[in-house]
Amino acid sequence: MNKLNQKRYFPKLEKWVVPFIFSAVITEASEMTVNKAAEEWIQSNSAQPIRYSSDTKIHPSELLNIIARHGHSLPDSIKIELENLGFNFSRDIVTTDRPQNLDYSRDQGLFRFHYSTTGEDAVDQTDISSNGIPDYVDSVMSIFSTIEGIDFDSLNYNLPPSDSWYTDQYNGGSGHYDVYIFNLPTNYYGYVQGENYAQQNNLLSRGDNENSAPVEQNAMVSFMAIRNNYSDFNGSELENLKVTSAHEFFHAIQYGYDGWEYGWVKEATAVWMEEFIYDEINDCYQYLSMFLENPYDPFNYDTEHGYGSYIYFSYITEHWAPEIFIKNYWENAINYNSWDQDYSIETLQKAMEDSGLDFTALTQNFHIANGLLSSDPAFEFYRYEEAENFPVNTPYFTETIVLAEDDTTIEISSWVGSFGSEYFLILVDDSSEFALGDGDCCIQVDLYSDYSADTNAAAYMTTI
After folding, report:
1. 458 alpha-carbon distance from chain centroid
2. What's the predicted TM-score (pTM) here?
3. Cβ-Cβ contacts under 8 Å for 346 (sequence gap 6 or more)
4. With bands split at pLDDT 50, 70 and 90, how would you rate the model's confidence at 462?
5. What pLDDT digit, counting tens, does each position of 281-326 carry?
6. How far, CA to CA in Å, does 371 sit from each of 165, 387, 445?
């Protein structure tokens, strides 16, 4: 947390939005320990395995990631409880087991789809096409064919590491990427579980994705789970299938680069990908309210806030770099050992350097755009094409300030999270001579920081 330090002068206007913006090298990280992560999982999953709590303060996928990293250090009593919930401690990476007892599998392209037509995991058996495959599964297969073409043919991502070295084909071992369709708990769209390092049994190549030219150190074999129906979700079932499949499979691709990359960037870029492939659905808007209404939280905050952080990557690709920027991020991620610590900001900065971008300036412009929330072309680099459809149309104002006289002085003491911002609405009383000036500079903003060495601050003022 830092204060702000900079002085700027601005021309006279009648109403102002002032974002106080700063960036710092040192960021806040999640303080969730493996014991807390395990306790949170146990408390919210007692009824059945793979059940996510709706009120977790850190996103459930990150709970899994923390347990995967550090689960072997847990007390035996907690390990037993997790084993009863489907966790496996026999590998280097602590994981949940793959779903069992699904009756059928179908292969298409890269994928093997597992499903059932009986029991609680059954898909709807309607088969209008009379091809012997339930229409629901047909829809899944068609969607994944589209995703496969975009992710690999158009964007040229690396294929995920293969599990062809597994001996049990139901639990992998076929060379296909396994997608399990079954009855997931309420409100849970789907998930991807990293379960082994790529080429686990090869001491020289362990952690290296055999489907890429560069050498990775933390690439992982994974599998995917999606729902057998989305009847209780907002939007149509087909739309939910599309965005979930695009989102979750991008997690599988991420695991092929760096399985230990931090949660916020995994989720933000996966949401970005679902919006890129299915832009017309806009399911991602559900995450924007939390993000835009808490601007003081940094975009690299490892909570559910990270879902809304997709807008940061959307801002970059909409204005400053093509969609290949996201791929450049993941290609740079392999150069840092994320097992050791969070290198996501260093990776982001390097990806921007490769694209000729300045991290500090771009981030400040991003915060300005979030202060305007407009699609007006007049704002040029401070706009979003779809801003008029966002669920939030004005920034969250920390304070509204009324200036009634020319010599009004207001002092604000405030703290902002690293890579966060605050917005203040300044209203100028129409009766004040201040509001009737000739346009000369008449507002002064002084920003002071306690940590000027690692802080870059800016204030930007505009009318609304």
Report:
1. 26
2. 0.87
3. 336
4. low
5. 999 999 999 899 999 888 988 767 889 999 999 999 999 999 999 9
6. 51, 11, 17
CB 205 within 8 A of CB 147: no
Torsion of CA 117, 120, 121, 124, to 10 degrees: 50
What DSSP character marks residue 416?
B
- How many helices (H) and strands (E) the chain has is answered by 12, 13
C-alpha count within 13 angstroms, C-beta hemisphere, residue 312: 27
Order of strands across the sheet with 220-227? 104-108, 111-115, 177-182, 220-227, 190-197
As beta bridge partners, residue 88 has 95
Residue 355: count of CB within 10 angstroms of its CB: 16
Residue 282 token pair = 């806009």
Q: How far apart are CA 113 and CA 137, in angstroms?
A: 8
Quick one: which of 409, 411, 407 has its CA closest to 433? Answer: 407
Residues 195 and 172 sit within 8 Å (Cβ to Cβ)? no
What is the Cα–Cα distance from 271 to 449, expressed in whole angstroms?
34
CB 219 within 8 A of CB 205: no
Joined together, the tokens standing for residue 347 give 């990776």
DSSP bridge pairs for 21: 421, 458
> At 166, which helix (H) or strand (E)?
none
- Residues 106 and 117: their CA atoms lie apart, in Å, by 13
Give how far Cα 283 sits from Cα of 7, 137, 329, Å: 41, 22, 24
Q: What pLDDT does residue 411 have?
A: 72
Is the four-CA dihedral 369, 303, 177, 260 of positive or negative sign?
A: positive
Per-residue tokens: 314: 């959307």
Element (H, E) at 4: none
Angle between helices 76-84 and 34-44 (to 10 degrees): 40
* Phi and psi at residue 194, to the nearest 5°: -75, 135
pLDDT per position as a tens digit, 216-242? 999 999 999 999 999 888 889 999 999
Encoded amino acid at 290, one letter: M
What is the token pair recorded at 72? 């072997």
pLDDT in tens, 58-114: 566 677 888 998 999 999 999 999 999 889 998 889 998 898 889 999 999 999 999
What is the rounded distance in angstroms from the CA atom of residue 457 to the CA atom of residue 5? 6
